[in-house]
Amino acid sequence: MFAGFLNLFKRNDHKKEHNGQLSILIIEKDVLVLNFLEKVLSKEGYRLFLTSEGKSGLQLAQTQKPNLILLDYHLQNPSGPEVCQQLKERDSTKNIPVVFLTTSTSSRSILEYFDLEAENYFPKPMKPRFLTSQVAQILEEYTQEVSS
After folding, report:
1. SS3 for 124?
2. What is the pLDDT of residue 118?
């Protein structure tokens, strides 16, 4: 993995959907979790962009304009909260829903996720059915808002 960056698919033409395919950017430092997410979500037909580093995740968000970003809260250099904050400050990415992937589910942590303007959080580990149903629901809501 060069510089922690895995871009498994070619760059698209910066549209919200590529040939009708919704896209998801996954920024996750744990390779096992990243592989799990890729395996489960690719079966659902999503176009995926994967990275294990926040810096490359910010670049991918800027260039690829995914429909959803799954973000490891516990990233380092920059941290998950810092990545989320930068995404929400940029005009080109501020409306993309961000979901934190986390092992921290205390009430205090959950409040922090929403204070950072995250759409939701998914506890790690998670079951494939939970992941696919939650992702589908968020993307359905997001695509309805964008088309309105």
Report:
1. coil
2. 96
Is-above-0.85 flag for pTM?
Answer: yes
Asked if residue 109 is part of any domain, the answer here is yes
CATH of the domain at 86: 3.40.50.2300
Instruction: Copy the structure tokens of residue 41.
Output: 């979500």
- What are the Cα distances from residue 66, in Å, to 52, 74, 103, 106? 16, 21, 24, 29
**d(C-alpha 30, C-alpha 111), whole Å:** 24
CB 70 within 8 A of CB 30: no
* Residue 63: domain span: 2-6+22-147
Q: What is the pLDDT of residues 8-25, one digit of tens each?
A: 333 333 334 555 799 999
